[in-house]
Amino acid sequence: MEQLDGRALILACSAIGAGLAMIAGIGPGIGQGYAAGRAAEAVGRQPEAQGDITKTLLLGDAVAETTGIYGLVVAMILLFANPLITKYLSLLGQ
């Protein structure tokens, strides 16, 4: 079997890490769907409070989405601006 050099190993592990980082989008999606369902229920029970319920829902969704955005940023860094490759090449003197 052909030997795997360090750069290829770093790229392979980075791709796996990026995929795992994208799993972070599952949690916010589930949470936002649950919150939207509960907000619809609340508006159904108290239509006069629709404005307050919507404001609270949007604020909660924005906070919940931050973890998904952080996961996306980590994945993009690992795929396109990988600092580990630069470090590896500097260790080799290239």
From TrEMBL:
Organism superkingdom: Bacteria
Residues marked Reversibly protonated during proton transport (site): 65
Localization, UniProt: Cell membrane
A GO CC term assigned to this protein in UniProt: proton-transporting two-sector ATPase complex, proton-transporting domain
Main subcellular location: membrane
Pfam families named among the record's database cross-references: ATP-synt_C
Listed PROSITE patterns: ATPASE_C
Gene3D superfamilies (alphabetical): lithium bound rotor ring of v- atpase
Membrane topology listed for this record: Multi-pass membrane protein
Transmembrane segments: 9-30, 67-85
Molecular function terms, GO-annotated: lipid binding; proton-transporting ATP synthase activity, rotational mechanism
Domain V-ATPase proteolipid subunit C-like: 16-78
Keywords from the named record: ATP synthesis, Cell membrane, CF(0), Hydrogen ion transport, Ion transport, Lipid-binding, Membrane, Transmembrane, Transmembrane helix, Transport
Protein family (similarity comment): Belongs to the ATPase C chain family.
HAMAP family with a match to the protein in the record: ATP_synth_c_bact
Role noted for this protein: Key component of the F(0) channel; it plays a direct role in translocation across the membrane. A homomeric c-ring of between 10-14 subunits forms the central stalk rotor element with the F(1) delta and epsilon subunits.
Protein name per the record: ATP synthase subunit c
Biological source species: Defluviitalea raffinosedens
Encoding gene per record: atpE
